[in-house]
Each structure stands twice: as C-alpha cells, then as structure tokens.
C-alpha cells in the first residue's frame, strides 16, 4: 500500500479514492480493514488475512522457501488453536 492507494488484502483490488485510502476501505468487498502488522490485516469480522511474503519483508526477513515455510507453520498453529486466518502469498 502506498500513501495514495489502498490495495485490498482479500480481493487484491486497488483504489485511488482518497476516502478509501484514508479509511483502508474496499468498495468491492464493502469492508474496512485495519493493518495490525506488515502483511497482517483484520477484516473487522473476526478473520485475520495474512500475506506471508509481506510479513517477511515488512519485518526485515529474507523471502525464501525456508522462511515462508517457518512463518506459514507458525500461523497454522494459531489456526489449530481456533483462530480464523486466511493465508495468502
């Protein structure tokens, strides 16, 4: 996401509308989003949307198969504990 656009973490559509950008809103999904960490978004409906590569990059890790697998396994452990998580990337 740059300062002048908002890209929906669920459907991937990008909005240039200043209101959408300011409020992290997707007109296609009709949802407001809240970024919790780089690559981790809360959809306000009890589901976290996690972009594995964005998480790694945003937290200063190299993106490779080993780091992807490690982080994916960590998120899947939370799913096993009952959290609702959609993993992308």
Explain what the structure shows.
- With 89 residues, this protein is α+β, with helices and mostly antiparallel strands.
- It has two domains: 1-32, no CATH class; 34-89, no CATH class.
- The chain has helices spanning 18-23, 52-58, 65-80, and strands spanning 6-7, 14-15, 25-26, 31-32, 34-37, 40-42, 48-51, 85-88.
- The strands form three sheets. The chain has a four-stranded mixed β-sheet with strand order 5-6-7-8.
- The mean pLDDT is 92.
What is the element layout, followed by pairings?
Blueprint: E1 6-7, E2 14-15, H1 18-23, E3 25-26, E4 31-32, E5 34-37, E6 40-42, E7 48-51, H2 52-58, H3 65-80, E8 85-88
Parallel strand pairs: 7-8
Antiparallel strand pairs: 1-2, 3-4, 5-6, 6-7
**Helix count, per DSSP?**
3
Number of domains: 2
Low-confidence stretches: none
**What portion of residues belong to β-strands?**
25-35%
Distance between the termini: 16 Å
Strand tally: 8
Radius of gyration: 14 Å
Q: Give the rounded overall mean pLDDT.
A: 92
Biggest sheet details: 4 strands, mixed
Helix fraction by DSSP (H/I, runs of at least 4): 25-40%
Element pattern in H and E:
EEHEEEEEHHE
Structural class: alpha+beta
Overall geometry: globular
Outline:
This protein has helices spanning 18-23, 52-58, 65-80; strands at 6-7, 14-15, 25-26, 31-32, 34-37, 40-42, 48-51, 85-88. It has 89 residues and is of the alpha+beta class. The strands form three sheets. The chain has a four-stranded mixed beta sheet. Strands 1-2 form a two-stranded antiparallel sheet.
